[in-house]
Description:
The structure holds two protein chains of two kinds.
Chain A: H1 2-15, H2 18-36, H3 42-55, H4 60-85, H5 94-143, H6 147-159, H7 169-184, E1 186-187, E2 194-195, H8 209-225, H9 245-267, H10 273-287, H11 299-322, H12 329-340, H13 349-352, H14 354-384, H15 390-409, H16 412-430, H17 436-458, H18 470-495
Antiparallel strand pairs in A: 1-2
Helix pairs in contact in A: 1-14, 2-4, 2-14, 3-4, 3-8, 3-12, 3-15, 4-5, 4-11, 4-12, 4-14, 5-9, 5-11, 5-14, 6-17, 6-18, 7-17, 8-15, 8-16, 9-10, 9-11, 10-11, 12-17, 15-16
Chain B: H1 2-23, H2 38-56, H3 70-88, H4 90-104, H5 109-130
Helix pairs in contact in B: 1-2, 3-4, 4-5
Transmembrane segments (chain B): 37-57, 69-90, 96-127
Keywords (chain B): Membrane, Transmembrane, Transmembrane helix
Protein name (chain B): Tripartite tricarboxylate transporter TctB family protein
Amino acid sequence: MMETLSALGGGFAVALTPFNIMLALVGCIVGTAIGVLPGIGPLNAIALLLPFCLALRLPPESALILLAAVYYGSGYGGRITAILLNMPGEPSAVLTTLDGHPLAKQGRGGAALAISGIGSFVGATLSVVAMTFMSVPLAKIAVAFSPADYVALIAFALSLLGAVGGVSAPKAWGAGCFGIMLALIGVDSGTGVERFTFGSLEMLGGIDFTVLAIGLFAIGEILLLVETTMRAEAAKIGGGQRLTAKELVFCLPAMMRATGIGFVIGVLPGAGASVASALSYTAEKRINEGNGKFGQGDMRGVAAPETADNAAQIGNLVPMLSLGIPGSGTTAVLLGALLMYNITPGPLLFEQKPEVAWGLIASMYVGNVLLLALNLPLVGVFARLLSVPASVLYPGVLALSFAGVYAASNSAFDLIMSVVFGVLGWLFRKMDIPLVPIVLGFVLGRMLEDNLRRALALSDGAVSALVESPVSIGLWVLTVGALLWPLFLAFRKGRA
Amino acid sequence: MIADRLLGLGFVLVGAVAAWSAWNLVVPFAADPLGPTPFPVTVALILMVCGGLLVINPTHRFEPIERKFAPPLMVVAMLAYALLMEPLGFMPATALLALAIALLFGARILFAAAVAVITAVTLWVLFDKILDLPLPKGILPL
């Protein structure tokens, strides 16, 4: 306890330097703006900013403070679009449209925006507190993990890809395998052999993570958007009655439950903010059955999913920091960012690089206060972003993506590679292939092989060593369960 | 349905090429118990199984492209940008790219030209002057 608090104090010493406060503020503003704009999610934004961090040689803790602020800031922005436009600014804001947009139409858009902003703050801040006290104990357990345990843990994280979220399991796993393959391109660190380079010199160093992320997410998304140039009309924020203290108190129990649901779902690998917000909305609807007008503009129907969304986003960071295993696409990109700095997140991070781990956690307290302060009064400014025409916005986003890629590598070849991945990302979206498994596979693939190597080196090549410890046996059982789960679902559906 | 089958075949093909390529790797000296081959071959086989499942049991239709010409034109514009960036310089190439993209997003020509100039100059000032990240100057005397 005291140990944690003093470590957190050290984190605040990092987070409260003027430079890092400024970065957190920039990240919060960019994050909210990104969340507002439909089509550009936090993943794209982080992919877009990562080359800047590298090219500017930001220290790792500062880069992480900036990128993480974009990540949790986007959770504040998505709701604005959902409430005013009846269209999620980011995927996890879908549920917010259900009650948020009716409220806006009734002239209470301002109140809906206020309660969702406060909900976001409550969910995020309470989750940061939980994270503060959970990360080190979790890391202490994970320190004892052997390479064989890690092999099982990564296999489990990958197996979950097909078991969650209504995507077809073969597509999700196939995409994960494809991501692993991409990661293996280049010189193999273990044996010095060239793999999958097919004689190309440019491929020797492997595929750059920023190029992959910008291509798949930023460029692929814009290719999808250019197919339709339609834009929706935004509802007015409205002068109607402001949020009352009574309404706030009325929503508090829902916010508390949503924080719990969101954080727990977030910590579990595989399930992300979308699942958490859907689950908490359904829970509120069920708990308050008979009293409330869910679907027609209930304040709790706005507060719950927004709180859960932000709580889950923070929860997602826990396995990423303490175990080094990302649970979602965006945390995979954050992990990729750390790897580019030659920092491997995981149990040792808190001991070896406390300024990175604790600096990040402390900056999230600061960042969420900044976000609340930005979002309550300035919501109108952010909402005005929705009236920027596509023909101004997307040329700028695309040019910024390319400039970032070029500034980080000074290579025209990387520009071409990012276009190639952009086309792939677009085609994959059209074919309903989830992109998140590709990034997760890319980040986890090399880790999986490295740990497999270490495990076999320790056991002199005996494969049985992979299933010797209780931890690894338990994780393998869970992995098999996750692999069979889609089959079970299909079977049940077939019988019904 | 056909799109899923093609995708499945694509997975099988990529997996087969990768497995064959990894299978034929020659290690000059064996110091490592795993070697470079087993891991990629296993992943490739799983990819092929996933592809096979998609061929047998396709679920999804390829979503029809609404504006058929826009995405390919955008790809051409982006590839041209990648090739022109170094010879032309950042500002002219970016202006051309932004012009093309703005037109594809339905802007009128004069408006698109304004977007192009403003985007190119803003990014140049941001990168070269404020952030001090040098970009190719190219043909402009800067």
